[in-house]
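subagent[fold] <- orchestrator: predict structure for attached chain, return tokens only, no commentary.
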Amino acid sequence: MTIEVKIQLLVFCLVFTMCTVYQAWGEQDYYEKKDFFEHRCMKFIEKSSNYHPPNESCCHAVREVNMVRICRMISAMDEETIDVRRVVWVALACNNPAPAGNKCGSLTVRQPSWVPPPPRGIYESSRDDNQAPNDLS
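subagent[fold] -> orchestrator:
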């Protein structure tokens, strides 16, 4: 083998090593972000409870992470305690949904056919319940 071929092979190995190490560091960083998301949102995404709209603390966590990456990282073991449908709903309710077609755990995200209900009190008004909404008298 000539010196040029050896140098090319060495450069290729160096670049390959740099790319794989960087990707591994990125994944480790997202395990921490996944833990952060789960900690803040567990009561809204766990299987053993009724679904409740997420609070501001959970939504803050959802907006800080890349939900596509978080969804990709949900394992079968995670799905024993986490309802992936609720993960999708929480992400949608917090305005950071995973786009349709992406995997979230074992679920493929579909185009939403509904919008999560608004927080209580936003659309309440002081009008009398017996009064028609368009009645101006």
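orchestrator: received. Logging for downstream: The chain has a mean pLDDT of 77. The radius of gyration is 23 Å.
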